[in-house]
Design a protein that fits this description.
- With 332 residues, the chain is an alpha/beta fold.
- The protein has 3 domains: 38 residues; 81 residues, Immunoglobulin-like (Sandwich), CATH 2.60.40; 187 residues, Rossmann fold (3-Layer(aba) Sandwich).
- The chain contains 7 helices and 14 strands.
- Strands 7-6-5-8-9-10 form a 6-stranded mixed β-sheet, with helices on both faces. Strands 4-11-1-13 form a 4-stranded antiparallel β-sheet.
- Helix 2 links the parallel strand 5 and strand 6.
- Helix 2 packs parallel to helix 7.
- It is globular.
């Protein structure tokens, strides 16, 4: 065979080998990508990092004028996203399931008045005492433009107590900044039953974040927010200018709690704080957690509605929506 023909043949063989190798590598990579992108089923225990392709919907059901309802099954619920039925791919109603709870404590100067910081410590101590094996708690605080995680999620009661002993009020109140921070500090929780308890007493006087932005950020979070409002404030609509006033403060925190499926407790230092703390922990334990996967698409805000069989007998509390792609499938 002449040299030019031999060279052409060698080149063709090498090119074919390269194509086959690329095809094999591509196929292997596609399989790896598909495995990596396939969402982990939350029912297997909700891995340490829950895939962003799953939406969690904590739900609390109460009889009208009565107690909690905790014996419902998946079939008793109907889940709608933007008015369209969606299959509930995962369902958790274990009363004994462990919880992940963050306490976000206001340490601004006004908390030094009227025994409010002492009441906060006692309320958090009560939450710790009521914790069960497997529960995890984290402590965070804000004051004077500073946001800090004092203790990451832990079951070590000693570490939590030592951190609370260092709480000393000072500085201004950046309430809206702290509210906008909530999704970040709550995302580290390992359990599907997760919540943030925000303890604060006053209006905002130092935030760089507007109340509207703060509400928007937390509305997209995947966890309920329970608020212990230390003080008496009228929850009538405020002017939304972030400049203060009890009404603006209470409006923000009330909207925050309702939008996430939590509760707002307006309390005074004393026994009221303990009752509120005990009630919110009971609510968290009685939650159902519904979940469904999403697919690629417009990452807009989507409204959630949860209905229950015999809805006329029950009051249903749940998050109002999420920001992300559309549900992966309709009703099963």
């Amino acid at each position: 065979m002449d040299t030019p023909r031999r060279s052409r043949l060698v080149c063709a063989v090498l090119a074919a080998a390269a194509v086959l190798a690329a095809f094999a590598a591509g196929a292997q990579q596609s399989e790896q990508d598909a495995a990596a992108q396939e969402p982990e089923e939350p029912a297997r225990g909700f891995a340490d990092r829950i895939s962003v392709s799953w939406v969690l919907v904590p739900v609390l059901v109460r009889e009208r004028g009565g107690g909690f309802v905790d014996d419902l099954e998946r079939e008793d619920f109907r889940l709608l996203v933007d008015g369209e039925p969606v299959a509930i791919e995962s369902f958790d109603r274990g009363r004994d399931a462990p919880v992940s709870l963050v306490v976000l404590q206001d340490l601004s100067g006004s908390m030094d008045n009227g025994g409010k910081i002492e009441a906060s410590r006692r309320a958090v101590e009560d939450l710790i005492e009521r914790s069960r094996p497997g529960d995890e708690l984290a402590l965070a605080s804000f004051a004077g433009g500073r946001l800090a995680v004092d203790v990451p999620f832990t079951s070590n009661r000693g570490a939590l107590g030592e951190a609370m002993a260092l709480w000393h009020p000072y500085g201004t109140t950046a309430l809206h900044d702290a509210v906008a921070w909530i999704p970040s500090i709550g995302a580290e929780g390992r359990h599907p039953k997760r919540a943030v308890v925000l303890v604060s007493d006053g209006v905002d006087n130092a935030s760089t974040v507007t109340p509207e932005t703060a509400r928007q950020v937390v509305r997209d979070a995947q966890l309920p927010v329970y608020v212990l409002g230390l003080g008496r404030h009228d929850a009538a609509p405020g002017n939304g200018d972030g400049g203060g006033g009890g009404a603006t403060y209470a409006r923000l925190l009330t909207d925050l709690a309702l939008a996430t499926g939590g509760s707002y407790y307006q309390v005074a230092p004393g026994e009221e704080v303990f009752r509120a703390a005990a009630n919110l922990l009971e609510q968290l334990r009685r939650q159902y957690v519904l979940a469904f996967p999403t697919r690629a698409g417009d990452a807009g805000y989507r409204r959630i509605r949860v209905e229950v069989t015999a809805d006329d007998r029950f009051t249903v509390y749940h998050r109002r929506g999420y920001r992300g792609g559309p549900p992966a499938a309709g009703p099963s």
